[in-house]
Here is the input.
Amino acid sequence: MTAKNGDKVKIEYTGTLEDGTIFDSSADHGNPLEFEVGSGQVIKGFDDAILGMKEGEEKQFSIEPADAYGEHDPTLVQKVPREIFPQDAELVPGLLFEAGLPTGEKVPATITDVQGGIVSVDLNHPLAGKKLNFKIKVSVITSS
Here is the structure.
């Protein structure tokens, strides 16, 4: 049986950046990643790579930013007043937090700079603009 759209799969994976840094791994979560192929539950490039794989098969592949988290968009780097953060929060460049949008949606954000009362916040996904490398193994395929 090979994985096709609509199948449920369990995948063991390790994701690395170009410099070899591991950014995510199923081992870190203690169990395989489980999702429905073609449903949009994972990034497009990951979904596409699973198609046609068999149970027990291993594969290594790379995903360009366009099929992952997109290119880094400089318009998503905003300057906001320090007062919008909790008074006791220690704001330092590199701090990752969850920002609330006017729509009520929450998105990951990173502090890039703190100058007096102004904080620069990057609302791009932390992996935007990065090529992602994966090593995966299909553990289970359940046909739809």
User: Anything to note?
Assistant: The chain has a mean pLDDT of 93.
